[in-house]
Amino acid sequence: MGVFWMIGLSALGCLVVLFLFGLRNERAVRRDWELLLTPRGEKLYKSIEGRVHSEMALAELTYDEAFSVRELGSVDEAIHLIDVGYRVIEKFAPNMLKLLAAMATFSRMVSAMAPVNPLRPRDFKLAQIVSLAYLNGLLHQFLVSTAERYRLRVYILGRSFALGARFLMESTQRIVRKEPEADREWDQIQAIRQDFQTLTTESLDSLKVLLTSLAAEKREDLLKRF
Amino acid sequence: MGHMSLIEIAVALAGDLLILAAVVGIVIRRRYRICPTFVLYLGAVLTFDLLVIFGPAWFYTRMAWVLKEVFVAALRFGVALELSFRTFRAFPGARSTARGVVLLLLAVTFVTVLAVTGDGSQSTASAPPTFELIAGRIQPRLVNGTIWLFAAIAATILWYRLPVDPFHKAILIGFVPYLLVFTTGLNVLDSYGWDLRTLVNYADVGAYIALMAYWARAAWLPAAAPIQAPERVRALQRLPG
Questions:
Q1: Which long-range contacts (C-beta less than 8 Å, at least 24 apart) are formed by B198-205?
Q2: Which residues contact A179 (CB under 8 A, 6 or more apart)?
Q3: Sign of the CA dihedral B86, B88, B90, B95?
Q4: Which of B112, B117, B190, B239 has the most A C-beta neighbours within 10 Å, making it the best mutation to test the interface with A?
Q5: Smaller CB count within 10 Å for chain A: N or C?
Q6: Contact residues, chain A, for B177 at CB < 8 Å
């Protein structure tokens, strides 16, 4: 019966792998590689960097305005601006998550990844994101290859973005509903803003590391395959 | 053994025609350059099948079957190793992982084959104990090792998101389900006795014909068109904005 168990487990594992392999879109994979191996890819990633900066600047501007208006006493106007700022982040965060996911995928396609440092807990304000940064530092020591460390960093950045966006939504909703202890929510939003800024900078640093690693690829050798 | 029924001959010829169709497709589409070991494998299977049909007294025997299976198993390993080499050679990161995985699986397969006790308890007067030992114990372990090897190659390709030739993909996808049916059949025979061989044979032949038809189709498919519409590029450009 032992052999049948072995066959059963083999069959299950192998069929799952083959099912995923069969479903894979080969044209999409080839396009990704084409993107990776041509100057167009580098240009694209550099343009992404520019757009991430401008999106974040727009959110910052809106939040700065909201805080200034609130200090001047126009609470309703400040609440409206906070809501607008949240809408900007609401669009920005999923895009960052998609970008980080694409970076993690591309990191597997690069043969040698440049080294990265783990996130520093002292750079963050929100306790949950600080914990994730500590976790990043801890797991970083257990991983051997630079590619694994890179993917861990990107994963922690993604989780932090998702966490920050959730807390921002909750705080914004409490302020919009004019719940008691709104001051605490304003402080929380301020902390999340700073964390978002740090996370964006760290994400762009990770993007630069990916670009540096791409530049070191032996593209000519790979291009011959396509 | 030594005599084939009409149905057995018809089924064997159908399988051979499909192999022939696959080989002709491979030659016409010039796919032999990307998988020479696979062409050798198909050639070996076809040659043995034809020898069995036209010289059953010599080749429709248990010992001939064992010899053929050992030879074909070696060629299957060769196909897996060639696929692995051709897929990973340009990607150093994936190559080092694949090398480790392939060596590990070869070692595990070797150990499982060595671990066979081989008491030959089901031997009969007409069949030497070595036949049951090889067909019922050693062969399933070899086939199981090959299945793991093909699945590991597929998993590594998935993990590193490597590009793979559609025909290489067809070889990988085709081998595993057929070998699973084959190894399950051999284990059923070993565990429940060789009286079930007709039933097992039907399942094996069905899977074999389906596999050959799949490969014949894959061999005749035109080569993949070059990438033109950069949809992925546009999708990535839309990411942050």
A1: B205/B11, B205/B15
A2: A185
A3: negative
A4: B239
A5: N
A6: 15, 18
Is residue A21 domain-shared with residue A126, that is, in the same domain? Answer: no
Q: Do A107 and A82 share a domain, yes or no?
A: yes
A46 and A157 co-located in one domain = yes
**How many Cα atoms sit within 13 Å of B32 on the Cβ side?**
13
pLDDT digits (tens, 9 = 90+) for B132-191: 777 777 888 888 889 899 999 999 999 888 888 899 999 999 998 999 888 888 888 877
Mutation target to probe the A interface, by most A beta carbons within 10 A, among B232, B234, B237, B238 is: B232
Q: Which residue of A has its CA nearest to B237?
A: A44
A166 and A80 in one domain? yes
Instruction: Give the single-character DSSP code of B72.
Output: H
Per-residue pLDDT of chain A (226 residues; tens, 9 = 90+): 566 777 777 788 888 998 999 898 888 888 777 776 667 666 776 787 788 888 888 888 888 898 898 888 888 888 899 888 888 888 888 888 988 988 888 888 777 788 899 999 999 999 999 999 999 999 999 998 888 999 999 999 999 999 999 998 998 888 888 887 777 888 889 899 899 999 999 998 898 888 778 766 655 555 555 4
Report d(CA A180, CA A111) in Å as an integer: 54
* pLDDT over 50 (residue B227): no
User: Cα dist. A156→A166, A204, B177, B194 in Å?
Assistant: 15, 14, 38, 57
Counted domains in chain A = 2
ipTM of the complex: 0.74
With CB atoms and an 8 Å threshold, state whether A32 touches B161: yes
Write out chain A residues lying below 8 Å of B162, CB-based.
29, 109
Residue of chain A whose Cα is closest to the Cα of B157? A21
Q: In terms of domains, do A29 and A5 share one? A: yes
| Residue A43 sits in the same domain as residue A70 | yes
Within this chain, do residues A115 and A30 fall inside the same structural domain, yes or no? no
Q: Does A43 touch chain B (CB under 8 A)?
A: no
Rounded Cα–Cα distance for residues A149 and A116 (Å): 7
Nearest to B144 among A10, A34, A44 (CB): A10
Please check the confidence at residue B125 and state whether its pLDDT lies above 50: no
Asked whether the beta carbons of B211 and B189 are under 8 A apart, the reply is no
User: Closest chain B residue to A94 measured between Cα atoms?
Assistant: B240
